[in-house]
Amino acid sequence: MPADKLHITLAGSEHVVEEGTTAGEALADRQPAGSAAPDSTGTPIAARVNGELRDLSSRLSDGDRVEPVGIDSRDGLNILRHSAAHVLAQAVQDLFPQAKLGIGPPIENGFYYDFDVPHAFAPDDLKAVEQKMRQIVRQGQRFSRRVVSDEDARAELAAEPYKLELIGLKGSAGRTDGADRTDGAAPTSSDVSGDSAESVEVGGPELTIYDNVDPATGAVAWKDLCRGPHLPTTRDIPAFRLMRSSGAYWRGSEQNPQLQRIYGTAWPSRAAQDDYLKLLEEAEKRDHRRLGAELDLFSFPTEIGSGLPVFHPKGGIVRKALEDYSRQRHEQSGYEFVYTPHITRSELFETSGHLEWYADGMYPPMEMEGARYYPKPMNCPMHILIYASRGRSYRELPLRLFEFGTVYRFEKSGVVHGLTRARGFTQDDAHIFCTPEQLQDELASLLDFVVGLLRDYGLTEFEAELSTRPDKFVGEIADWEKAEAALKHALDKSGLTYVIAAGEGAFYAPKIDVHVRDAIGRRWQLSTLQVDFQEPGRFGIEYQAADGSRQRPYMIHRALFGSIERFFGILVEHFAGAFPPWLAPIQVVGIPIADQHVGYLEQVATRLREHGIRVEVDASDDRMQKKIRNAQRQKVPYMLLAGDDDVAAGAVSFRYRSGEQKNGVPVAAAIAEITGAVASRIQV
Length: 684
Ligand SMILES: [Zn+2]
Ligand SMILES: [Zn+2]
Description:
Structural class: alpha+beta
Shape: globular
Strand order of the largest sheet: 16-20-21-28-25-24-22-23
Bound molecules: zinc ion
Number of helices: 19
Distance between the termini: 74 Å
Largest sheet: 8 strands, mixed
Oligomer: single chain
């Protein structure tokens, strides 16, 4: 073969190209095949070469496998957003030459960059920076990669102390790829990122700097220490906007200097960005922290501490209704209820392995009478002790233990978020002990139960994820395969759409996660089903099989809501505070047209209360219109109005949350309508 020809594989088919051909040229020459790579659409903005992301301008070698990366793909979005972060940093240093650069990774829906500046950025500063960014985008500056030695990088970046620190960290172990962090499966809509963000700067086999080259002059307008890859030019950023700024500690540690972080969002089109901004606006209106205060449901007293909520009477009613129904359904499905304490001696978590693997997520211990006691982060070990409290026969299995178990987990104050990420919360936690033969059927009926119950709470759209054996795992491969097959069988039987997250299981067990979409399309992870063949062994639990031999049971961990607090927060946002009648703290408000109708409505209310309906009559001095507005603000499902005509006819007039009205409904029919809606748990 002549030296000036390269044999490469382009999106799956063989090609011969000239030496010196770039990934971008090769992809552009490629005949548009009927089927593009599944994760990329339109013109590629980067390439995957032999599995690694590269710039379109990178030169190919003989034997390379080249795949296009479209801007809409997960990789493409990360590249777009990271490129926007560079433009942000360039604009900031243009306007604030004293600013020192921290890090600037892509995150879910956007990007940020950290700066060491003498003063926090004001809103006007952000406007000016955004304007400067638009200028840079219009110029179409080229992102140009160059490999540098450590020494040269240190010399070039002598004025950037944080970058120098990153050069020093190059190659240190335990760093993950920056792109992984922004997985769309993040359980909340929060964009708080982890601490491994420096990986966008260094960590590859070579140290590289990206220059922003002005196409008019050919001069380097700006540069950054960066692994890349990037878009070809700044003009390839179709839509972006700066969102806000906040303080952030360098590398996430309070021991380090506080930097100023600017957040932005960037999208493959204006339309996609507009959709996202609209979603944010809608999410803001539904924010459970705000509605929780407006509807008097719960609060987070600073005296108690971050991430530790208290439920007010109205929130308490909703929570009790949630829990009561869950209890009832669990009872019907053969669960037995147990109760366990909040703290335990350290030995329990030594046996379970939590202290070895999970200590970072635990509260520190208390010393008492020579022993160390930990607040529990999980209920599992205690349920195992209940199982182990006496000999068990195969006849008792499956044994399904259920508890509303309150646990405490240490979360950094930066990631605590209302009820959806708290430090103390109550799991609707079940542990099912079964024989190996029972595993498959038990999982299938369990998944059915989970989804059925979630539907009853008003959720309709589900997706599941099966996480399988990771590279680092404990146990026998045969056990893993058996458990994975049983989980897959359950998913197939359920009819749920699911994806397989290969290698994403915990090191001790594979699992199914059930995600829901809420009313505005956001995805939340809720239920988890996990097959555990480690803990039973660590605790040495057994049962006596039919042949008299001693066998080890399987254990299924299952949290359905995940945590009640989090589920509560998600429901508040899903319903925008307008709970369906069965969950509403006040289900009916009686509104008299004049004072003389109060007594009549009180009689109607008494009859409703006999049916267990939560009803109030507004006998205040407010005018009727004000009373209607108050009930609307409290999102009460039913207003019952009564005037002279209604009293004469033994009727009431309905006014619904929608504003719709229905007059002259006989009292018995009104009661039937309300009790019927409550009993069927429908949204009205
Ligand atoms: Zn970079
Ligand atoms: Zn568990």
